[in-house]
Amino acid sequence: MGKKDKKELNALIASIAADTINKIGKVSFEYEQGVSYLVFENAYNNDLIYELIAIAELDTDKYWQKLSAQDAEILNGVKQDVSEMLRVLASTQLNEQTVPALEDVKDAAADLKAEFEAVIEALDNDVFVDLTQLRIKAYAFRNLFNS
């Protein structure tokens, strides 16, 4: 990178990282009650990300005993797919002219969230649950960005 010492190299790397992060959002440093931390503010799709974050953060171990091995695999797959899609949402500006269109993404996210909430409610109430629709909704959501 053409720098002569460690200090110059570290400054350059920090600058590159900050520039990269700022292309998809905003990063700031905060200090509260003796703790320093980074705050990442994303410029794109925050409302959609907040709607789907519960799926990505699901503690699947809580439901492991209630699910067959196949269903546990499906639930973990949906969780992984949504985690990947959150990264895509964070770096993709959507509107009505983009492909996919913002409304289509909102509709697919709402369908996925509703199905997820129904599955979790059933699991919490020890009711039999079929994860087929959840898998279909996650697949449809993911495929919006693959067209």
Topology of helices and strands:
Elements lengths: L5 H19 E8 L2 E8 L3 H11 L12 H22 L11 H23 L7 H12 L4
Antiparallel strand pairs: 1-2
Helix pairs in contact: 2-3, 2-4, 3-5, 4-5
Output the keywords.
147 residues; mainly alpha; two-stranded antiparallel sheet; 5 helices; 2 strands; 59% helix; globular
Précis, in short:
With 147 residues, the chain is mainly α. The chain has five helices and two strands.
What can you see in these coordinates?
The protein starts with 5 loop residues before the first helix and ends with a helix. 59% of the residues lie in helices and 11% in strands. The radius of gyration is 20 Å and the shape is globular. The protein has 5 helices and 2 strands, in the order αββαααα. α2 (46-56) packs antiparallel against α3 (69-90), α2 packs parallel to α4 (102-124) and α4 runs antiparallel to α5 (132-143). The protein has a two-stranded antiparallel ribbon with strand order 1-2. The protein is mostly helical and 147 residues long. The chain has helices at 6-24, 46-56, 69-90, 102-124, 132-143; strands at 25-32, 35-42.
Q: What's the gyration radius in Å?
A: 20 Å
Low-confidence stretches: none
**Number of helices, counting only DSSP H or I runs of 4 residues or more:** 5
Element-level helix/strand string: HEEHHHH
- Percent of residues in helices: 55-70%
Distance between the termini: 38 Å
**Class inferred from helices and paired strands:** mainly alpha
Report the portion of residues in β strands: 5-15%
Summed over residues and divided by their number, the pLDDT gives a mean of: 83
Q: What would the principal axes of the Cα set say about the shape?
A: globular
Largest sheet: 2 strands, antiparallel
- Let me know the number of strands: 2
Strand order of the largest sheet: 1-2
